[in-house]
Fold this sequence. Notes:
By secondary structure, the protein is α+β, with helices and mostly antiparallel strands. The chain has helices spanning 15-27, 74-81, 121-126, 130-138, 147-160, and strands at residues 4-5, 37-44, 48-55, 65-70, 84-95, 101-115, 172-178, 181-187, 191-192, 194-200, 206-211. The strands form two sheets. Strands 2, 3, 4, 5, 6, 7, 8, 10 and 11 form a nine-stranded antiparallel β-sheet that branches. The two termini are 21 Å apart.
Amino acid sequence: MSSALAKIEDFPPDPVEFFKEILQAAAKGHPEGFMQEMNLATVDDEHGVLNRTVLYRGLTQDNFVFYITHRYTRNFKNLQANPKACITFYMPDVKDNAGNQSSWQVRLIGATAVELPESEMDALWAKENLAAQIRGHICPCGEPINYDELKAKHDQFLEEHKGKLIERPASYTAWKFQPQRWDFLKVGIDQIADRVQYRLQSSGNWESMHVST
Length: 213
Ligand SMILES: Cc1cc2nc3c(=O)[nH]c(=O)nc-3n(C[C@H](O)[C@H](O)[C@H](O)COP(=O)(O)O)c2cc1C
């Protein structure tokens, strides 16, 4: 049996830069089609809190994490009613330059969701794959559904749109997140984790520190 303390050695002054570094390292072992998911927790009237997995779509021009959804989903309605949210990323296989493997959790704490402007939606919609575009038209999110009926609807939609551009539905939208804190946790096998937290100051600067796990 062994035990050690993980140590986050070098970290840049800007948390977004740190996040990009870790993401890049996580993607290294997966040259094709690397996708990063994130867990999004929102305040929900009925359940108190509700979380779900969504796809990380990158950073906006002003450097905020964003994801894409539809206005008919619960996650959209939750954020519209209360923009407070928390996000976690889990990256289980990140190698440093020396080849040592660690897992990382990156958490956006006290984040405020801001909907992206309509003017940015066409470009995002154009990059969606066919299944995602069809889903946007035929799926009543969260409602009971009959597979055979949905399949018939899907197949008909596919047939009618063969070789045609699929129009962006009005429900298609995206949210970015402005966090108060970024929390980075690193741990390896038989290690006690290390954490680095960035806290947004009233000056707009980030203060960073190691915090206990
Ligand atoms: C790998 C994965 C990626 C997903 N990506 C998204 C996404 O980007 N946007 C989204 O609205 N739902 C996404 N979902 C579906 C959500 O987890 C969720 O089921 C759906 O949004 C309805 O959740 P709600 O009732 O909390 O709104 C994804 C699910 C999985 C498993």
